[in-house]
Amino acid sequence: LKMSWLWFYLPLHVLMAACVCHSIKAPTTSSQQSFKTDLFNFYHSLILADGKETTIHLLKDIPKRYYFVLEESRVLAPFSITVTPCDVPIEWSILVYKASPSFPGKATQGDHDTQEVSKSEKAPSMVSTIFNYKGNSVETYMGMSSHSALYLLEFLSTERDTHITVYLTTDTTSGHLYPELPTDPRIDVLGIGHTTVTLTWKHSPSVLQHRDSIQYCLLVNEKHNYKSLCAAETAIRSSGMKPPPTLALSLSPYLLEPQQVMILSNSELSIINKLSSGEVRQVCMGTKNTYTVPNLSPSTQYYFDVFIVNLLTNASAAYTGTFARTLEEPEPKVTELKDGKVIHVVLDGKKQKFYSLQYQARHKKIQFTFQLCRGHIRVHITKNGKTVASENLSGLRYFSLKGKLLDTYLVQLRSTEESNSSVKVLASPHFHKPLFPLLPESLKIKSFSKLRTCRSVTIAWLGTQEESKYCVYKRRIEEDQIWRELQSADRCSGPESRHKSEKVLCKYFYDLNLQRAVTTETIKGLDAGTFYLFDVYLFGPSGIPVRYHSKAVKTRKKC
């Protein structure tokens, strides 16, 4: 069975079909109009290529027609047509025009009146609609033909402009353009977690035959399933983003848009599209037929589609999509705060989860104290379910609150950066003696450049009106380590974490006049042209230290 595209055959076929359709009588006015319509349809149709996937763009409410011709064959020969809608549902149909072998195209011998064929005896119609469909699924029509025939395909979109792909082949013995699906093309959900879903599917026969040129690709989104790969790409494109050229290709970073993230790990390529309707993930995992989707949001419904893709032709076939809802996030563990007891909390910046502390008031006035040790933290405090404070922490922060006996306070802490953060938390009645020392206006250490020598430096810091103990520590540091050390310093750690050789001195001082509450110290015995990191620790009545901001100073190289 082979194709014939000779244009001079077309009028004969149309003429024969039109004559057979209406009668062997001379055409009436109505039949002449129908005959002209047939001619118009064919002359305004395009040839559909054999053995090649054709992309067709459809305008709303405007039909588009393609045709192909099959020549006569001694045996029944198969052909197939596969139509893939890439967006909205469409309507399409197949009409066949056949030349009747028993109708030569003219009346038989005899008198015209006696040879006139009645309506009940007229030749059977040789024009027929052999297939029609409306929807957005991928549909394949398989046909057999042994007669010379002309086929007309008509496509119509009634919703909006769209595009489709059409694949016609008359050679069904040399392989398939599209990868084969298994007899059971469903995706099974093996397991569901709070942030993961594990999927599996049966292997495609194409994987077993062409392992090097076939791979599976998974699409994850929060809207709905897609019945074809081109439908998924169209949805991403319509959201204002540029999809990859094809899901299965080896993508490079320069193909990505700013809203796209590419992740390559364990030979798996993942593309994450940040859309207004949620993330759309694309993952290609080779020929593995089991996959655990990570980093999902709890209590969220996701839709999963698996496509088997031919890397040589970019043709694909879709498994039957599935969906699953991740488990609800478990209630965070709540730690009880007790009067006068300090709790040290370390927060995981990557998980971005709240750490919850609960306190039941035994007094009308209470005070929460937060000492930020490392990183950046957001605190949110509620009383009986109503917010009373919410802000980013900095240094040492006090919240004095009034309420009733047995009021329930919930303190929630969250790291605002990806690295780990830590904080010390204290809850106590307002009138209790504070465990943390009274702080000066600033915790900065100042150095005097003019007082630097090759062997000494002079530093100064602010004090308070309360007599307190101050201890000074020093250590050598390389210049390229200063920034990292200042960023990662634990401001809650005390001198117990320091080596004894780093201690310089301890002293007590205060001044009732805050303008004069300043102390200086000259540290001697240093090496010339060397960086030193200086720390000052302030101790309150309870012995809990507060660390000033570290100061790096370099001694003079020449004196």
UniProtKB/TrEMBL annotation:
One of its GO terms (molecular function) is heparin binding. One of its GO terms (biological process) is nervous system development. Residues 179-316, 437-545 form the Fibronectin type-III domain. It comes from the Eukaryota. It is found in: Secreted. Residues 1-17 form the signal peptide. Keywords: Glycoprotein, Neurogenesis, Repeat, Secreted, Signal. InterPro entries: FN3_dom, FN3_sf, Ig-like_fold, NDNF, NDNF_C, NDNF_Fn(III)_1, NDNF_N. One of its GO terms (cellular component) is extracellular region. The keyword Cell membrane does not apply. Its main location: secreted. Secretory protein that plays a role in various cellular processes. Acts as a chemorepellent acting on gonadotropin-releasing hormone (GnRH) expressing neurons regulating their migration to the hypothalamus. Also promotes neuron migration, growth and survival as well as neurite outgrowth and is involved in the development of the olfactory system. May also act through the regulation of growth factors activity and downstream signaling. Also regulates extracellular matrix assembly and cell adhesiveness. This is Protein NDNF. It comes from Menura novaehollandiae (superb lyrebird).
